[in-house]
Design a protein that fits this description.
Number of strands: 28
Structural class: alpha/beta
CATH topology of the largest domain: Metallo-beta-lactamase, Chain A
Strand content: 15-25%
Radius of gyration: 25 Å
Strand order of the largest sheet: 12-11-10-9-8-7-28
CATH architecture of the largest domain: 4-Layer Sandwich
Largest sheet: 7 strands, mixed
CATH class of the largest domain: Alpha Beta
Length: about 625
């Protein structure tokens, strides 16, 4: 059936269900959504269950949009005229993809009005659907820039979404059902995550990261026939924003890809931030720059964001649902429903099956599940992490000991995830007088990443949300934290009083941590404290193994005299017990398990142990292998 005929049929079905007097002027596929254009958006809104009923009966994501949306500049004036000044409106963002206007305010209740009266008044004046959120406690320049950029390419993006919408909803033509997954990276290794999910109709790439060891062989196998040319891909799905999963997504646009990248909203913003920082670090180290900021813009322009639990068509025969992975802000387990109940696959990305200070445990319940690809970072027989409370006590003891002897503590940490976990632990440690009230300096992208966390409080666990918004105690704004925003301040920190320095990169493969190491490593009073995984081939792993002279390019070497401390238990990854328990608790039970994202011995060991425990078919695949699922 032609797309136009299908849209006509859908419009007829919609007209049969809407109450008399509501006009549907146009129906159009835009990205994964079916957009209903009408002159009566308010009447649609008043029919509370209508959109839900249409979505259920048509099995589509439904968006209702007015035929005429007021010019944003004029709409801003109208909003400010309607809303009382004491609401403290700090930002107004128009999302043309959804027809929504996001109003950030210090007092959201004033914008909403009694029983929603002010919101209804706004809708009546401007046509856009207002959505109100509390102003983030820390302003994020990344979020602001992403929003401004999307607004500037509004018309181009609308055309892109219509093109993608028609591509997604094309007819399924093949009569020979099969599902295959090709391993393009991240098998029996950590990093360069990339997996190709193929059916006779569709090709979807899951993640596209770099290997964190700075080797020449650090990119996925993007040139193999299964994925080449890149223009034939239907979609890219991004599980989370760490560079070993997202760093090379912009590279796809450099070499011919022009389709969508699906992720959660925080993943989009964090990825853009880290990709731009990645380019800066690579250029400073005189390495070959894989792409430019223009390709990062292409990624943002082609991004489509989905919230947890939203079932979405991304190809004619594939539906995607994101579920909480508990790893970092916005991290997701990607669940693919293929065909009309033909096959279901989940890719965990990195996940944490325990509650942390930031997030709830990873989701373990799915509607259907035949195969799961799961990370194995800590899948080895000896990879048992201590309890978080035990890890925090060890961190408190280390900081107290080092600062009492006049030393400084350097904590290399990922900007996203580990930094915020450590910040929360240290803020509580100072507040409850478990450690001295020393300054905690944040260097690299940590402050900006933390700002993005406060922009998306709905992705944090309920206790932290309540602490910030109901109890008025925001640990991220504690006086102990000081952002390092210049080389002069960095110098003062190194020459100043005992303190704690949380800085990037987490595996010492570049970033300001190398400057701190260069300036502080010779003094045995200081300490370098590892709180996250150190991959093979990284500077962090070498120091952990006992290297005491570190080459730093043309500048010579760093002599390591400071104390080296490794504190397990802060990781955002599940340890071996949690990985095995996760499979025990997953519902429904999968028929096949693939162990990926781990050192070779870990993936093999975990696969073997899972088979012995649960008698489920397991595989530890190798890069470039293809498995037929059905």
């Amino acid at each position: 059936m032609l797309i136009e005929d299908r849209l006509k049929e859908l419009k007829n079905k919609i007209n049969e269900k809407v109450p008399p007097g509501i006009t549907v002027s146009e129906v159009e596929f835009e990205g994964p959504e079916l957009v209903i254009y009408t002159d009566d958006p308010k009447r649609f809104a008043d029919e509370a269950d209508l959109i839900r009923i249409l979505a259920r009966d048509l099995r589509k994501r439904i968006v209702v949009r007015p035929n005429v949306l007021e010019d944003p500049e004029r709409a801003i004036q109208d909003i400010r005229a309607v809303v009382a000044e004491n609401a403290g409106i700090t930002d107004i963002f128009f999302d043309a993809d959804t027809g929504e206007v996001l109003i950030e305010a210090e007092k959201p209740g004033v914008v909403i009005g009694k029983n929603g009266a002010t919101l209804r008044e706004i809708t009546k004046h401007i046509g856009w659907t207002p959505k109100v959120v509390r102003t983030p406690p820390i302003e994020s320049s990344t979020v602001k820039q992403v929003r401004q950029y999307l607004r500037s390419v509004n018309e181009e993006r609308k055309q892109f979404l219509r093109t993608i919408g028609r591509r997604i909803h094309r007819d399924v033509t093949s009569k020979d059902p099969w599902v295959r997954v090709t391993m393009l990276g991240c098998c029996r290794e950590v990093g360069r995550a990339a997996f190709l999910l193929s059916t006779p109709e569709s090709k979807v790439l899951i993640d596209c990261g770099e290997k964190p060891d700075n080797s020449s062989n650090n990119a996925p196998y993007l040139y193999v026939p299964e994925i080449h040319p890149l223009a034939q891909l239907d979609a890219v799905v991004l599980t989370h924003a760490h560079l070993d999963h997202c760093a090379l997504v912009p590279l796809l646009y450099k070499y011919g890809y022009d389709g969508p990248v699906y992720s959660t909203p925080p993943t989009r913003d964090l990825s853009a931030m880290l990709q731009l920082d990645y380019l800066d670090v690579v250029s400073k180290e005189d390495r070959k720059i894989p792409y430019s900021s223009n390709e990062v813009k292409s990624y943002i322009r082609h991004s489509i964001t989905l919230n947890y639990g939203s079932v979405t068509d991304i190809a004619p025969d594939i539906k995607l649902t994101f579920h909480n992975a508990g790893h970092i802000l916005g991290s997701a387990i990607a669940h693919f429903h293929i065909g009309d109940g033909l096959y279901n696959i989940a890719f965990t990305g990195d996940f944490n099956y325990s509650k942390s200070r930031l997030f709830n445990p990873a989701t373990n319940q799915f509607p259907r599940l035949e195969a799961i690809f799961m990370e194995s970072t800590y899948g080895g027989s000896g990879d048992i992490q201590p309890a978080r409370a035990e890890a925090e006590e060890k961190l408190y003891e280390t900081i107290s000991s080092v600062t009492s002897r006049g030393g400084k503590v350097i904590i290399p940490a990922f900007a996203v995830g580990r930094s915020q976990e450590v910040m929360l632990a240290l803020e509580e440690g100072i507040r409850k007088e478990k450690i001295p009230a020393v300054k905690i300096y944040l260097d690299g992208m940590i402050r900006e990443a933390t700002a993005i966390h406060t922009t998306y409080p709905e992705y944090l666990n309920s206790e932290l949300r309540n602490q910030i918004f109901k109890e008025g105690l925001n640990p991220f704004l504690a006086e102990c934290f000081v952002a390092v925003d210049s080389s002069d301040l960095r110098e003062k920190v190194m020459n100043g009083d005992p303190c704690v320095i949380i800085t990037t990169s987490g595996m010492l493969n570049g970033g300001p941590v190398m400057e701190y190491l260069s300036g502080l490593a010779s003094d045995e009073r200081n300490a370098l404290v590892f709180v996250g995984y150190q991959a093979d081939g990284t500077m962090g792993r070498r120091i952990q193994k006992g290297w005491r002279e570190i080459p730093i390019g043309r500048r010579g070497t760093i002599v390591i005299n400071l104390e080296i401390v490794t504190i397990d238990g802060f990781s955002g990854h599940s340890d071996r017990r949690q990985l095995i328990n996760y499979i025990g608790h997953v519902q429904p039970k999968p028929e096949k398990i693939f162990t990926i994202h781990g050192d070779e011995n870990n993936t093999i060991d975990l696969a073997s142990s899972l088979y012995k425990r649960y008698h489920i078919e397991t595989h530890s695949p190798m890069n470039l292998e293809t498995y037929r699922m059905i």
